[in-house]
Write a structure and sequence with these properties.
The chain is 40% helix and 23% strand. It is an alpha/beta fold and 397 residues long. It has 2 domains: 2-145, Nucleotidyltransferase, domain 5 (2-Layer Sandwich); 195-383, Nucleotidyltransferase, domain 5. The radius of gyration is 21 Å and the shape is globular.
Length: 397
Amino acid sequence: MNKILSVNAGSSSLKFQLLSMPSERVIVEGIVERIGNADAIYTVKLNGNKERTTLSIKNHSEAVQLVLNDLIKRQIVASLDEIKGVGHRVVHGGEKFKESTIITPEVIKQIEEVSFLAPLHNPGAITGIKAFQEALPNVVHVAVFDTAFHQTMEPEAYMYAVPYEWYEKYGVRKYGFHGTSHQYVSMKAAELMGKPYEESKIITVHLGNGASLAAIKNGKCIDTSMGMTPLEGIPMGTRSGTIDPAIIEFICTKENKTVQQVLEDLNKRSGYLGISGLSNDSRDLEDAAAEGHYRSNLALDIQYKRIADYIGSYYVYLGGADAIVFTAGIGENNARCREVVCDRISALGVKIDYDLNNRVRGVVTELSTPDSKIRVFLIPTNEELMIARDTMRLAKL
Ligand code: AMP
């Protein structure tokens, strides 16, 4: 039995899970938030109990020390030697990283080199990696990239029809995100169907606060809805998804704003929040829509239409589909969303069991009826487990 830490570090947060491998059991999980503040919050979940502490945490190194000391204090590990590997989620791997990789000084340099593509995300991950390397210098550290799974796309899918030099000089292309999630749920769907992953056609719908779809053929991603940044694709909690790019200059002129300000509007004040004017949370919108709030209903309809559009186009691009998978916060919990989307793609012969769909949340379930032409699954995503698996594999444990 090996204990593996799965880590997701942001600019001011550090999320972790300690897993027992190969049984894949989560021993403990937690998060340190508001790192850099006198009132940082440490939340730990153990044996179904959640504990919250507010304390001062200056930086990621202190956060890492806090977590590791807590594991010892609670006797979850007798000594840090029990932790055999650490897997780190890294948002952007650019074109350099097509798969998970053991972290070396050269790899850190390469992650830094592609950080201009994810300036809000990659620096936090690098800080997290360095802090854990300092605390656990003798174990294997592995980087798992959100973009890696999408690196199998063909140029026709990832290139934008813009001046080619933009790609050559600056790497302007579609990269896609949530790759670890798309890969995990598609593998699971193939397993549930009893079909070899290498001979399957699967459309994955990752719907959380951030949301994206992927078309996966024979175990390889051939298209995905997010782009060079996570702004492209379907509308999300606060992001617009794809819009006519000319709108940016138009609003800059009309509202005397800079491009950065308009991009902030598109990232933080659009999507569910922008259209409804109420909330970025799907639960609030569903409740308001049920009470007749027009703009909440519209925000949901815009998104559901766009999800159906992508599924239709991926169905064609894949040359058919064996399965459609719903996952992440909304995909796993919002029955109405799944129902409306499946109704909107009924032309593909998709049929789900409405009662069953209404009853389930957050558990692996086949939602389609036996006569559905495409099987529909709810599969909770598990990026932490994928990170732990890759860490085990690369560390040869
Ligand atoms: P994520 O980013 O995957 O954590 O997903 C966040 C989204 O999931 C939010 O829009 C939430 O409204 C939605 N969500 C989470 N739990 C539920 C639930 N029990 N019912 C409906 N939506 C939920």
